[in-house]
Write a structure and sequence with these properties.
The structure is a homodimer of 229-residue chains.
Chain A: H1 11-17, H2 40-64, H3 67-74, H4 78-84, H5 88-112, H6 117-134, H7 137-148, H8 150-173, H9 185-207, H10 212-225
Domain HTH tetR-type (chains A, B): 43-103
Keywords (chains A, B): DNA-binding
Protein name (chains A, B): TetR/AcrR family transcriptional regulator
Amino acid sequence: MAGRFGGQGLAGIRDAEGSADARNPEASSPASEGKAPRTARGQRTLRKILDAALEEFGEKGFSEGSIVGITSRARVALGTFYTYFDSKEAVFQEVVRDMSAQVRDHVAPVLAGSADTLEGEGRALISFLEFVRTHREVYRIIDEAEFVDPEGFRKHYVTTADRIAARLQAGKDKGEVVAMESKLATEVEAWALMGMNVFLGLRFGVWGKESPAEVTRIANHLLQSGLRP
Amino acid sequence: MAGRFGGQGLAGIRDAEGSADARNPEASSPASEGKAPRTARGQRTLRKILDAALEEFGEKGFSEGSIVGITSRARVALGTFYTYFDSKEAVFQEVVRDMSAQVRDHVAPVLAGSADTLEGEGRALISFLEFVRTHREVYRIIDEAEFVDPEGFRKHYVTTADRIAARLQAGKDKGEVVAMESKLATEVEAWALMGMNVFLGLRFGVWGKESPAEVTRIANHLLQSGLRP
């Protein structure tokens, strides 16, 4: 059973693009290859199409969503869509990348303003819970990417975990985070923390109405001190 | 945006069926309504169909998978399939329920043999990582359920979190787990722990080849003692 999970491993993703953060917007446009907008007006049109595509796929999912649905939400002509994207798959892939970047950019200022590593992770969680409560489609888009755009799905999680690992490593260097001896440790901790956040976001951000601050206080206590009395 | 995440909330699922553990196999058969097998031979045939369906959907996904694919894998006639299930949707729903129960049953003996709550969670994680390494299709099935069988998807996670919460609560009662004052605490901790396990399973069970014992040692250290030095 090769399946979409088998085979290629994680190395391919990192080798191919490095971290998403490192992507140079000049070099790599959100549009399909050779279709990057050349003017500010073109960039605004592309942004309208992406926002409309997010709405369309968020509401209808990939298979029910359509290019016509996207262009009518964006109020642009069908030909304008094809000025920027080759296909429904292409715009979906860009929506995944864009959504992943939106989550990152939403949380970044909170992290930048935190003096302490683990308290920063707590503030990032509150901010994430608030974000998903008003952007419920983020889960549907990223989760559907597992089937529609498996490489984009992996890349979202690999680059997110890499960012968390880099923050934890910086915290270890400053003595704010406990440093285990194993070289695996920071990566395992990063994936554990990301998994916590994703599931707390699903349960308490998308499904529930509990206070993000209260949920975070409990989760961050676990992260900082563990559950052993 | 109603979407599949909006609206019904979690209460409906708990009210409708309680915990999956509480399901009485006499009362609720895996087959479609009115199609429960009446003989031991029938039960074996149903089991063959379910195993074949797991393979079929695990390899091809729901939309590409077919009833004919299932019956030819199971080496049963098409009519035999319809003796037990009404549709492809119905057998997929049962595969989700069955997969969820298989994960639970695989981990249960490990938990039963653990004297200490948090060490038990560690042993359960090793066991889960080993299980997903040989059952990679578990992720594809459960994740695709989000789109094909959203109620089954929710129920899988809600009942899994409920089981973890019950174990943590028992640990709190015995003084083995730190008891926070908030009534939300145990539920948040359970979802955090489940999220950790799901993402560690994806990264280190399905995608990676790292030692389950080593990964678990690191994750369980986080769970027990936290990351604050």
